[in-house]
Design goal:
Elements lengths: L3 H14 L10 E5 L5 E4 L7 H8 L6 H20 L4 E2 L8 E3 L5 E3 L6 E2 L31 H16 L15 H10 L7 H4 L4 H10 L10 H13 L1
Antiparallel strand pairs: 1-2, 3-6, 4-5
Protein name: Kinase-like protein
Keywords: ATP-binding, Kinase, Nucleotide-binding, Transferase
Pfam family, one: PK_Tyr_Ser-Thr
Length: about 240
């Protein structure tokens, strides 16, 4: 049985999902209420990206397939940000990206998504998963826009390029060391290492990823720009 709060959050997610129609956004089909509440969506046979890393670590996909996943996600998030008013997902992470039988990546889990009613407004609620959260969300009085999604997706791109070999971002930090992590990422601009990636991938891809986790939100690229740059690699 869902609590009143859970029911309200489920209604919000359903309301939002019913508005969305895009190839790389999970498609809402219906709601099941018995024997328990659950959303019915597209079936993605390969599961979420995080666990897909683990199952295929010994046989990772090639460069072009990785770029295809990155493009699919960027295209989907660009669709959200390009709506009027824009939609910020606010919980972009590998666990919320699903892979279907055709190897297409789809953005899922809109429980924390928020519509930004006016283009000149910012959001103030702290939410998401800290390992993928943009540092501006960690402030005592957070103020941020959909550029927080761009930061989170930069970390997902790092996961894709390393194919989970390094785990998820900042995996070595525990709940007890949260404040130290905040200090390193927010104040010292610490980011995951890209040294091993620089030897294996084109420098424009690495530079694009690093620009997405820039400490200054305004300097991060738009998701439309990210998708456009990735698409070029799929057209070659």
């Amino acid at each position: 049985m869902l609590s009143d709060q859970d029911m309200e959050e489920t209604k919000k997610e359903i309301s939002l999902l019913m508005q969305l129609r895009h190839d790389t956004i999970i498609q809402f089909i219906g709601l099941c209420t018995s024997p328990r509440y659950c959303l019915v969506t597209d079936y993605c046979a390969k599961g979420d990206l995080y666990h897909y890393f683990q199952r295929t670590r010994n046989n990772p996909p090639g460069f072009k397939q990785k770029i295809s996943y990155m493009y699919d996600i960027a295209w989907g998030v660009s669709y959200l940000h390009g709506r009027r008013p824009p939609i910020a997902h606010r919980d972009i992470k590998s666990m919320n990206i699903l892979i279907d039988a055709d190897d297409r990546a789809k953005v899922a889990d809109f429980g924390l998504a928020r519509i930004r009613e006016r283009s000149n407004t910012v959001m103030h609620t702290s939410c998401g998963t800290i390992n993928w959260q943009a540092p501006e969300i960690w402030r005592i009085n957070p103020s941020y826009t959909e550029k927080a999604d761009v930061y989170s997706l930069g970390l997902v791109f790092w996961e894709i390029l390393t194919w989970g070999e390094k785990g998820y971002p900042y995996q070595s930090y525990t709940e007890q060391s949260r404040e130290f992590l905040f200090h390193r990422v927010r104040d010292c601009h610490y980011r995951p290492s890209v040294k091993s990636l620089e030897k294996s991938y084109p420098s424009p891809i690495i530079l694009l990823m690093k620009s997405m986790w820039d400490p200054e939100p305004k300097r991060r690229p738009s998701m439309d720009s990210v998708a456009h740059k990735l698409r070029k690699y799929l057209q070659d």
